Amino acid sequence: MRIAITGAAGMVGRKLTERLIADGTLNGAAIESLHLQDIVPFEPPQASFDITAETSDLADPGVAEALAARDADMVFHLAGVVSGEAEANFDKGYRANLDGTRFLFDAIRLREGYAPRVVYSSSIAVFGAPFPPAIGDDFQQVPLTSYGAQKQIGELILTDYTRRGFMDGVALRLPTICVRPGKPNLAASGFFSSIIREPLAGKEAVLPVSRDVVHTHASPRSAVGFLLHAAGLPSEEIGPRRAITLPGVAVSVGEQIEALRRIAGDKAVALIREQHDPAISAIVEFWPQRFEANRASRLGFTAETSFDDIIRIHIEDELGGSLQ
Q: 107 CB contacts (<8 Å, ≥6 apart)?
């Protein structure tokens, strides 16, 4: 099994890499090689199999073709810029999230005799308001952000190229991944993690939206599980609809805070400072809230069932299993 991961230096990419190294296999086959690509420099980890790292931009000429020429059996396409950055910098968003994706998919399409499984990280941002109380599998995709539009276009190309036999693709509409470790990024959704991560570390966090905001989350551990499960799904089980809306935990910001209180106490909650940000609120306003991910459940995708579980996973995976 030869594997390639784009966006490998990102949080999900790093955790996926760690899991693949720990397992040593994918879909029952021993991993022969792992090629990691990202636009930022990074040091590849050590493994019992061959690992290579590449710093490059998929939107640059020849980069996608060189990656496709590696003939990876499995391609995890995670590269892109996050929602807030894509909205603030229109050209950068389309270059990273659309051009890079299209160039990679075209490089795969044009490589004769090559049709790998491609797992593409899409987003629930493909859905736009007005929303029903819960979004089902048949709700129409009408994104109301540039990021959502870029992700939906990627889904459409993947679906068409799979229909034509150029690849065996599956697009995963990831919920917001929370609690994200490390430093805050430029994602408009970043506060969902920071209001938990920073207080657990004894630091102040800013809440830019109302506590009434409802959103759907899954842990980084679940994100990796989604990707690995998608890698092994038989194509005939997925069917012609190649984009899958994934399960998660739908909670209000206020419910997130109360979960933090149950686990870490009032002292942690006191570190959250409410400071309204109109720009972030305007983006979040057009995001979906709850999902009925029945198709994903039938296909075997699983996630946490409470936000308390999401916080506990962060403590286990990032804080050594306990609060200091």
A: 64, 65, 67, 68
- The band of 324, judged by pLDDT with boundaries at 50, 70 and 90, is low
Burial class (CB in 10 A: 0-12, 13-18, 19+), 134: middle
Q: Which residues of 29-43 are buried (b: 16+ CB within 10 A; e: fewer)?
A: eebebbbbbbbeebe
Amino acid in the structure at residue 233: L
Cα torsion 90, 208, 151, 104: sign: positive
Residue 185 is predicted with a pLDDT of: 72
Q: Which of 94, 114, 120, 147 is catalytic?
A: 147
SS3 call for 190: helix
The closest of 43, 61, 57 to 107, measured between CA atoms, is 61
Written as six digits, the tokens of 32 are: 């022969």
Note the pLDDT tens digit of each residue in 275-285: 999 988 888 87
Q: How far apart are CA 298 and CA 239, in angstroms?
A: 13
Q: What is the pLDDT of residue 282?
A: 85
With 0-12 CB in 10 A as exposed, 13-18 as middle and 19+ as buried, what is 300?
exposed
Give me the percent of the chain exceeding a pLDDT of 70.
99
147 catalytic residue (yes or no) = yes
Alpha-carbon dihedral angle through residues 202, 208, 210, 213, given to the nearest 10 degrees = -90
Q: What DSSP state is assigned to residue 98?
A: I
Is the CB of residue 9 less than 8 Å from the CB of residue 38?
Answer: yes
Residues of 52-89 as b/e, b for ≥16 C-beta within 10 angstroms?
A: ebbebbbbeeebbeebbebebbbbbbbbbbbbbbbbee
- Confirm whether pTM is higher than 0.90: yes
Where is pLDDT greater, at 322 or 99?
A: 99
Q: How confident is the model at residue 194 (pLDDT cuts 50, 70, 90)?
A: very high
